[in-house]
Amino acid sequence: MTGAHPTADDLRLPPELLPADGRFGSGPSKVRDQAVASLTEVAHGYLGTSHRREGVRSVVRDVRSGLRDLFSLPDGYEVLLGVGGSTLFWDAASFGLIERRSTHIVIGEFSSKFAQVARAAPHLDEPQVCETAPGETPARPETVEGDVYAYPHNETSTGVTVEVHRPAGDALVVVDGTSAAGGMRFDASASDVYYFAPQKCFASDGGLWLALCSPRAIERIERVTPTRWVPATLDLSIAIENSRLEQTYNTPALATIYLLDQQLKWMLEHGGLDFAAGRSERSAATVYGWAEGHKFATPFVKDPAHRSPVTATIDFDERVDAAALAAALRANGIVDVEPYRKLGRNQLRIALFPAIDPDDVAILTRAIDFLLERMAV
Question: What is the mean pLDDT of residues 121-147?
Fold first, then answer.
């Protein structure tokens, strides 16, 4: 097909190259059909009921208990939750976790946004920022100068990971686990706050934040919050109070909580974090192995030790129009593999969350090859 313009028929995938489920988006992510069916079954007794009554609070209780089990939380750690996603949690952290100054590892769009929140807060000092170009091996500060040390476990925009670690000093370790939680292994004791939203590895919808908090983090919240004005919806001390009652301060999306609970139960019933992370790792091995041996593709993240097992970013040779390739995939029902919009690279970004079947990921790579053979490459 070199030099010719392929037709729609040329780019139609045969049945054997169609994944059973074509959703590979990095958020909102694929929601398992079984979870949706379960929600349908309980809808009349659950949806449209009070979030302060036992019918909903029991699901919140299951979520908090399930997260403690999934992550093997140390004694004294608490699971907090509130309305709003990780974006809202950055604002809440600027009021309730950062005492005077924070230190940030910035390796992409989302890690930079938390640093921007800290920089803009009038009651905080200028943050210490250790920034690395997108896709490169993350650099760490030699000395952490802030009282909060913040970094992402997985940078969703680039597919770069940072091992959960605790530096020397007394800073609270605050880790953005939004796209990593449930799909990447880590030791919860290495962090004081590990926060995330459920629309990625936990195969639910957005609009909720959750945080695994150490006793040190709880103490910081309860000590710092009374010293400054805090909007109630951003007040982490109110989140503590309500979480202990198995509820949120204001009304949550009940479907989101239920789907999260269903995904947690699925993970725990099949082996917990080993099972969930293992599925993502299997998918990642497929994608990166395929890209490393490809004529036109290569992993964007050069250092294998920092390649994400949950968000694969794959660069393409200039002879390939990655946008046209994504459009051809979308026309065949394989959706949301476009790159992060602000990164501006000729690449695909493929989610590898636990709910995504590793066999579907393998079929996706073969589908891409089929289309490349028929496009003007």
Answer: 96
Cα 175 to Cα 335: distance, rounded to the nearest angstrom:
29
Same domain, 21 and 99: no
* For residue 5, pLDDT beyond 80: no
Residues 176 and 281 in one domain: no
Given a cut of 50, is residue 202 above it in pLDDT? yes
How many domains does the chain contain in total? 2
What's the Cα-to-Cα distance from 270 to each of 12, 125, 187, 274, rounded to whole Å? Answer: 36, 46, 20, 9
| Beta strands 297-299; 311-316: pairing state | antiparallel
CA 293-319-297 angle, to 5 degrees, is: 20
pLDDT in tens, 48-83: 999 989 889 999 999 999 999 999 999 999 999 999
CB 241 within 8 A of CB 221: no
Residue 133: what residue type?
A: A
Between the CA of residue 203 and those of 125, 185, 280, what are the distances in Å?
A: 37, 17, 13
pLDDT band at 1 (very low <50, low <70, confident <90, very high): very low
The residue among 216, 243, 269 that closes a domain is 269
